[in-house]
Design brief:
The complex is a heterodimer. Chain A is mainly beta. In chain A, 0% of the residues lie in helices and 49% in strands. Chain B is globular, with a radius of gyration of 14 Å. In chain B, 0% of the residues lie in helices and 53% in strands. A six-stranded parallel β-barrel of chain B has the order 7-8-10-12-11-9. Classes of the chains: A mainly beta, B mainly beta.
């Protein structure tokens, strides 16, 4: 019997992730905690990370959502994530594939690259920001005003 | 410069206007055309979707829907709407970025970010003597 005649149900517990290194999308199981990128063969963590106290890390790497809770204070060289929620304090270079949400009274210090940003009133931000679909690089050349 | 009837924005720089120089005003201005230079106000600035602004702006409240390049300082807040495209250094007490807005530059936001230059509505304007580049576009 040809393969197309098999009645294999489509799994509905799949989710699409984007590789942190090559940026290519791929489907993975919703419950998977880590995979290997099938394009660049790099190991990818998929779990969501939650910080509720002081933590100093060299690198935070995950395709999931990183959450810094109100009492969390994270210092990292680099944060590479699928999305970021900051309610406490975070210092480091941030590269997010998803939106960055900064809560009221949160503190975010460091360079940020993300597709979108939401900031609560009273939040403190400091750093170089590249926000937008292509990391904020598609600002058009504005022609000078002719006098 | 045209005067329109709006309460929040009594001044409007229309879509066919090209302004080069320094501008100060009291309440609010809606920019629909092109502006190059400096803006100083304790009031509001609204950069509409079709507007292009290349300026250093010191204002109380700045709302951007169009293209802006330059240094923005707002004693109250900066709002980058969905269609906004901004490149430059931003300093404000509060920042609102809608999804789809493009932001590229150094950001300093916080209650103390604009300390040292308080802007209260109705206060006298601080004179600014920033040089305006002559004969060459601001890059």
């Amino acid at each position: 019997m040809p393969a197309e005649n098999y009645n294999v149900p489509q799994p509905d517990d799949r989710t699409t992730i984007f590789c942190l290194y090559c940026g290519k999308p791929q489907e993975v199981g919703r419950k998977a905690l880590s995979v290997t990128c099938k394009f660049c063969n790099k190991p990818l963590k998929l779990e969501d990370l939650r910080f509720q106290a002081y933590q100093a890390r060299r690198v935070i790497d995950t395709c999931g959502i990183v959450t810094i809770e109100k009492k969390g204070n994270v210092v990292a060289d680099k944060v590479n994530c699928g999305g970021l929620i900051v309610r406490g304090k975070l210092k480091g270079e941030i590269q997010s594939r998803g939106p960055v949400l900064v809560g009221p009274e949160a503190e975010l210090r460091g360079d940020v690259t993300a597709p979108s940003l939401a900031v609560g009133a009273g939040a403190i931000l400091e750093g170089q920001y590249k926000i937008g679909a292509k990391g904020g690089s598609d600002v058009a050349d504005i022609p000078p005003v002719s006098s | 410069m045209a005067e329109s009837g709006g309460n929040d924005f009594p001044t409007t720089l229309g879509p066919d206007a090209n302004f080069k120089g320094e501008l100060t005003y009291e309440k609010g201005m809606r920019l629909q055309g092109k502006f190059e230079g400096n803006i100083n106000t304790a009031g509001r600035l609204h950069v509409t979707k079709e507007a292009k602004l290349m300026a250093d702006v010191d204002a109380g409240w700045i709302s951007v829907e169009g293209d802006v390049r330059g240094k923005l300082t707002a004693s109250d807040r900066v709002e980058l709407k969905q269609s906004a495209r901004y490149e430059g250094d931003l300093t404000a007490s509060k920042l609102v970025v809608d999804e789809g807005a493009v932001l590229n530059g150094h950001v300093t936001v916080g209650p103390d970010a604009v300390k040292g230059k308080p802007h209260t509505p109705g206060a006298p304007h601080r004179p600014v003597n920033l040089p305006i580049p002559q004969g060459q576009p601001i890059k």
